[in-house]
Amino acid sequence: MRNLVLSVIGDDRPGLVSALSDAVASNGGNWERSQLAQLAGKFAGIVVVAVPSDRADGLIEAVTGLDGLLEVAVHSGDVAASRDGDWDSLTIAVLGNDRTGIVQELSAALGASGVTIENMTTGTREAPMAGGMLFEAELHVMVPPSVELDAVRADLERIAAELLVDLDLN
Questions:
Q1: Which of 48, 90, 99, 125 could make an S-S bridge to 33, C-beta 3.0–4.6 Å?
Q2: Is residue 54, in this structure, part of any structural domain at all?
């Protein structure tokens, strides 16, 4: 079996997932994982499929031939790398007034500590009483055993205070 990672984007409209899944299934592929979303009028995401090695070329041709519906880029995927030692899992929730640089500052602090972001969801919404926009994010991260979890928490709390955002760490 061969793992392929498909990155997809197209103008949002009904039937996009159906067209992609038909191309995958008709070429012997198994849809294993995905994250797909409608953002700013576009439908975008990433899909991991497994396919018998002898059918991979046909699947690649089928999914990249969805012109007019989706632009699909195909990348070779590997089995997830194992991590040495006991990594700590941390969930970070952020809520505050929207402003430029929130993601940059949080991700820079995490990256500098060796923390890896497993999943991140962000968005903005109108502030219910005060007006303006609120920024919210949820990050699921993994902290390597060589990094002090308390040090990561302290860095994030310092940044949250500077950014004037609420931070919830679990």
A1: 48
A2: yes
